[in-house]
Amino acid sequence: WLKVRCPPAPSRCRGGRAPPQAMAEQQQAGQGGQASKDQPELPKPELHVVDMSKAEAEFAVDVAKKGVISLFKNERRSFCEVAQYIKKEFDKNPVVGGGAWHVFVGKHFGAWVTYEAHKLIYFHIGQAGFLIFRHG
Question: What are the tens digits of pLDDT across the range 11-25?
């Protein structure tokens, strides 16, 4: 069994701003600054590939939104920690049926995967991409 640990999150990204703060500022600028610090408004999810039931897809988007919001609140420090959170939620939730779920989260990534039939979703929330699938 192999466990991959998240590397320490960099404290700054290009431009000298912390990643969650930079994303929040960009989104607030696009929304006229309407988002509150307690509960930032997120852009509407952009679904690219959905090969799962509607209930599973809604669960995936809801959990991903919670993960992004946790970045804004500095409860998590990196996309890797968000991916870890999403995987744990999928592994324990009866809506998605448990199993071996795999999660990719980030602004830039490529993937070529094999997955169980009707157990994959790929979408973006703002600049953050999410690939979630079950295999094994």
Answer: 433 333 345 555 555
